[in-house]
């Protein structure tokens, strides 16, 4: 049973997902820049604008976590799971995340930041 309220756990999970999302977008940006697209600048602009938005969200997340004495650390990773240590108001909790679930959540966030947030 977790002692972390749902809202704060969501924020702590954002501290996991948003850096992963930035890693994916950085790799994609390099791929786009090396590609043979005739008009690649619009794609580059879209990815860079999305990354800027995510950086802003990540900064807000980190500020909130620092203010509320929250921290997330990756402890262990294997083929199937990644374990994180959540530090929350003096409490320590270990949370295991199924790696395909992490990937799927990052994909959901990628879809959201690239286009769903613009469609309401």
Structure description:
The protein has 120 residues and is α+β, with helices and mostly antiparallel strands. It has one domain (6-118). The protein is built from three helices and three strands. It has helices spanning 6-34, 41-67, 99-114; strands at residues 70-77, 81-88, 91-98. Strands 1-2-3 form a three-stranded antiparallel sheet. The N and C termini lie far apart (35 Å). The mean pLDDT is 95.
Order of helices and strands: HHEEEH
User: What is the percentage of strand-forming residues?
Assistant: 15-25%
Q: How many runs of DSSP E, i.e. beta strands?
A: 3
Q: What is the rounded Rg?
A: 16 Å
Content-based structural category: alpha+beta
Number of domains: 1
How many angstroms does the end-to-end distance come to? 35 Å
Largest sheet: 3 strands, antiparallel
Helicity, as a percent range: 55-70%
Set down the secondary structure blueprint.
Blueprint: H1 6-34, H2 41-67, E1 70-77, E2 81-88, E3 91-98, H3 99-114
Antiparallel strand pairs: 1-2, 2-3
Can I get a quick summary?
With 120 residues, this protein is an alpha+beta fold. It has helices at residues 6-34, 41-67, 99-114; strands spanning 70-77, 81-88, 91-98.
Throw out a few tags for this protein.
single chain, 120 residues, alpha+beta, three-stranded antiparallel sheet, 60% helix, YhjD, YhjD-like
